């Protein structure tokens, strides 16, 4: 039997922003378990936009990865850039690479395999499943498909890397006791009274097609304020701060922390929240990673199920429309599928959680 505590570094290849990284956490944890004592290098390409949160900001401190390697996406037409990227990866000494990339077309998978082979990798995990996977083609847009968390876990399991334990717990970022205490102190310093319910709100998104109207969120906040007098904490990026302020104006008490907290700080605050209400965003996945019940508002742009908050006690609101499966990032029908979700539905779902009567509908 091979002693996996000795040997060259193991690379994990994954791309994407906050949500993309969070749904891969159980698989990343499985890699850590499979290679105890080995140095784990998280390999990723430089994000195409500054709005994408670097993986280091999410994973550093989790204990799941030891180092991070970011390189510019190589282009076949840029020979010098391609060789620079190859040299950068080869210098890490990676001999085994775990492929956690979202579903891609066969020529992309083959290109990635060749790149890592030329960079020195000789054992490959996840490529076989990726080769046989379907690309981003929505054939029956209202047919549920498996969670991205489960898909990634299943892909690496086919090559012998299986998670030991509950995948829901595998989503955790491994907060320290100090970080958890800081999250509690953040809320204690701002809440009006002890015992006040805490509701996390995620009302923004970098994708316009995922935005439920801010005025409707304001109506939900106003209604919940009258019924439960909760404390609202708004989370998100700096770019979402303005819309958070707009909705916060309808709350009896709350704070706008959008852009003020790091990922781990946001996670520590979420640890003490009773509920998340908001759009399909990375913040939603962060709430799910802390097992916070989510009221998640989803478009019909892609199949139901794939990106739903993972775990139990979440309520997903999604409407069927003739244009389902469009995959548009900017809707040409004024976000019709989202606007079919009524304010009363969101308020009722939130009340069900706050009253302790939520069942898992996701």
Blueprint of the fold:
Layout: E1 10-13, H1 18-22, H2 25-34, E2 40-45, H3 55-59, E3 67-71, H4 79-90, E4 96-99, H5 106-118, E5 123-125, H6 127-132, H7 148-157, H8 177-188, E6 198-202, H9 214-228, E7 231-234, H10 241-248, E8 253-256, H11 263-270, E9 275-279, H12 282-289, E10 294-298, E11 315-318, H13 336-339, H14 343-354
Helix pairs in contact: 2-7, 8-11, 9-10, 9-14
Labels describing this entry:
single chain, about 350 residues, alpha/beta, Rossmann fold, 2 domains, six-stranded parallel sheet, five-stranded parallel sheet, 14 helices, about 35% helix, disordered C terminus
Short description:
The chain has 14 helices and eleven strands. With 362 residues, it is an alpha/beta fold.
Low-confidence stretches: 357-362
Determine the mean pLDDT: 91
Q: Which structural class is indicated by helix and strand composition?
A: alpha/beta
What's the architecture of the largest domain in CATH terms?
3-Layer(aba) Sandwich
For this structure, what is the CATH homologous superfamily of the largest domain? Glycogen Phosphorylase B
CATH top level label of the largest domain: Alpha Beta
User: What is the number of domains?
Assistant: 2
Strand ordering within the main sheet? 8-7-6-9-10-11
Oligomer classification: single chain
Q: What is the number of strand segments?
A: 11
Hey, roughly how much beta strand do the residues contain?
5-15%
Tell me, briefly, the overall form. Answer: globular
CATH T-level topology of the largest domain: Rossmann fold
How is the main sheet built? 6 strands, parallel
How many angstroms separate the termini? 42 Å
N to C succession of SSEs: EHHEHEHEHEHHHEHEHEHEHEEHH
């Amino acid at each position: 039997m091979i002693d996996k505590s000795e040997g060259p570094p193991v690379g994990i290849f994954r791309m994407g922003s906050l949500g993309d990284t969070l749904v891969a956490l159980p698989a990343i944890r499985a890699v850590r378990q499979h290679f105890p004592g080995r140095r784990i290098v998280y390999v990723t390409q430089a994000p195409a936009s500054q709005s994408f949160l670097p993986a280091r900001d999410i994973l550093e401190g989790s204990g799941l990865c030891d180092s991070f390697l970011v390189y510019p996406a190589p282009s076949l037409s840029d020979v010098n850039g391609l060789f620079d990227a190859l040299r950068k990866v080869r210098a890490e000494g990676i001999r085994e690479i775990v492929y956690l990339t979202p579903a891609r077309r066969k020529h992309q998978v083959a290109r990635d395999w060749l790149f890592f082979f030329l960079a020195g990798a000789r054992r490959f995990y996840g490529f076989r499943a990726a080769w046989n996977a379907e690309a981003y083609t929505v054939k029956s847009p209202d047919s549920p498909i498996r969670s991205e968390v489960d898909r990634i876990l299943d892909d690496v399991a086919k090559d012998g890397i299986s998670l030991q334990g509950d995948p829901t717990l595998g989503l955790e970022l491994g907060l320290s006791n100090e970080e958890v205490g800081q999250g509690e102190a953040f809320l204690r310093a701002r809440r009006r009274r002890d015992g006040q319910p805490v509701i996390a709100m995620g009302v923004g998104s970098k994708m316009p097609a995922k935005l439920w109207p801010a005025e409707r969120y304001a109506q939900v906040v106003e209604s919940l304020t009258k019924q439960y007098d909760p404390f609202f904490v708004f989370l998100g990026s700096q770019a979402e701060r303005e819309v958070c302020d707009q909705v916060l104006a309808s709350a009896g008490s709350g704070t706008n922390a959008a852009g003020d907290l790091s990922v781990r700080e946001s996670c520590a605050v979420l640890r003490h929240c009773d509920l998340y209400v908001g759009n399909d965003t990375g913040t939603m996945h962060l709430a799910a990673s802390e097992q916070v019940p989510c009221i998640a508002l989803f478009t019909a742009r892609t199949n139901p199920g794939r990106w739903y908050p993972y775990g139990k006690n979440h309520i997903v609101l999604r409407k069927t429309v003739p244009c389902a499966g469009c995959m548009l990032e900017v809707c040409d029908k004024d976000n019709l599928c989202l606007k079919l979700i009524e304010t009363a539905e969101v308020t009722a779902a939130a009340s069900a959680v706050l009253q302790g009567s939520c069942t898992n509908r996701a």
